[in-house]
């Protein structure tokens, strides 16, 4: 059994906000608030982790990812290459037409809040494919999404590496409590857990704008109910929650 979304028994990762799937995260997951560091006080560098226990609607996440300060967005360019949308965008660039309109009403505020993000990375859960553990990776001017394996919740317990079981279970959701960021039933370790690092991210107002944009991309209560009803029906979920993002496949 090959499973690339793992907590390898290597030297533990010392970065408090790291969610890189190749690092060991056997420490307790307590990333709820920005960490005060020398970088924060000297350079204004801050970080926070966006966490949620319901999936993103891929189409809305595509819009939010386009607001990142990137020049190379592999998740968008690969998905749109050769499409009517790409042709229309090229025509607009050539004619100097107005930039495309966004569905998210706070798009410009979110763009301004995201402009000083220099690194963001972490696990993401997309509605079109319940088994797929995906990874958000943004550094500087480059962004891409990747499938890193399957969520452990979809792997029979007997196939879990015995020495990693305790660490794996730490990523499982607590008893469902409801609320906009939660699911109403247990979805195991499926989650959004994305760390943002950049200048000014210690400012609560900046963090609020980024969180609001990401929350807008999550499934609504109505969509979540439909997702849970059809969770085992991959083809139907693909129709209801079409994915326009290119996700690099797992190695």
Report the β-strand fraction as a percent range: 15-25%
Q: Mind summarizing the main beta sheet? A: 7 strands, mixed
The SS-based structural class is alpha/beta
Mean pLDDT: 79
Taken in chain order, the helices and strands follow as HEHEHHHEEEHEHHHE
Parts with pLDDT < 50 across at least 5 consecutive residues: 6-17, 21-33, 79-92
As a whole number of angstroms, the C-alpha radius of gyration is 18 Å
Keywords:
251 residues, alpha/beta, 7-stranded mixed sheet, globular
Provide a descriptive summary of the structure in words.
There is one protein chain. With 251 residues, the chain is an alpha/beta fold. The protein is 31% helix and 18% strand. The protein has helices at residues 38-43, 58-65, 74-80, 84-95, 107-114, 165-170, 204-217, 221-229, 234-240, and strands spanning 45-52, 72-73, 117-124, 132-139, 142-150, 192-199, 247-248. Strands 1, 2, 3, 4, 5, 6 and 7 form a 7-stranded mixed sheet that branches. A hairpin with a 2-residue loop joins strand 4 and strand 5. Helix 2 (58-65) runs antiparallel to helix 7 (204-217) and helix 5 crosses helix 7 (204-217). The protein is globular. The two termini are 14 Å apart. Residues 6-17, 21-33 and 79-92 have low confidence and may be disordered.
Topology record:
Elements: H1 38-43, E1 45-52, H2 58-65, E2 72-73, H3 74-80, H4 84-95, H5 107-114, E3 117-124, E4 132-139, E5 142-150, H6 165-170, E6 192-199, H7 204-217, H8 221-229, H9 234-240, E7 247-248
Parallel strand pairs: 2-5, 5-7
Antiparallel strand pairs: 1-6, 3-4, 3-6, 4-5
Helix pairs in contact: 2-7, 5-7
């Amino acid at each position: 059994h090959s499973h690339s979304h793992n907590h390898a028994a290597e030297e533990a990762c010392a970065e408090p906000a790291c969610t890189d799937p190749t690092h060991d995260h056997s420490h307790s997951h307590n990333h709820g608030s920005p960490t005060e560091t020398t970088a924060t006080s000297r350079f204004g560098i801050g970080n926070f982790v966006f966490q949620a226990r319901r999936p993103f609607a891929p189409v809305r996440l595509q819009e939010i990812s386009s607001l990142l300060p990137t020049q190379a967005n592999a998740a968008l360019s690969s998905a749109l290459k050769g499409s009517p949308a790409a042709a229309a965008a090229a025509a607009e660039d050539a004619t100097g037409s107005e930039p495309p309109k966004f569905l998210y009403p706070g798009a410009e505020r979110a763009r301004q809040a995201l402009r000083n993000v220099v690194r963001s990375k972490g696990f993401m859960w997309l509605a079109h494919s319940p088994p797929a553990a995906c990874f958000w990776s943004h550094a500087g001017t480059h962004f891409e999404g990747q499938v890193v394996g399957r969520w452990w919740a979809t792997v029979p317990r007997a196939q879990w590496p015995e020495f990693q079981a305790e660490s794996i279970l730490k990523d499982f959701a607590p008893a469902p409590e409801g609320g906009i960021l939660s699911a109403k039933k247990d979805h195991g370790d499926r989650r959004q857990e994305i760390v943002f690092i950049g200048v000014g991210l210690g400012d609560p107002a900046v963090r609020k704008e980024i969180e609001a944009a990401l929350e807008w991309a999550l499934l609504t209560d109505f969509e979540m109910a439909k997702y849970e009803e059809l969770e085992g029906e991959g083809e139907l979920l693909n129709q209801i929650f079409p994915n326009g993002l290119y996700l690099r496949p797992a190695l």
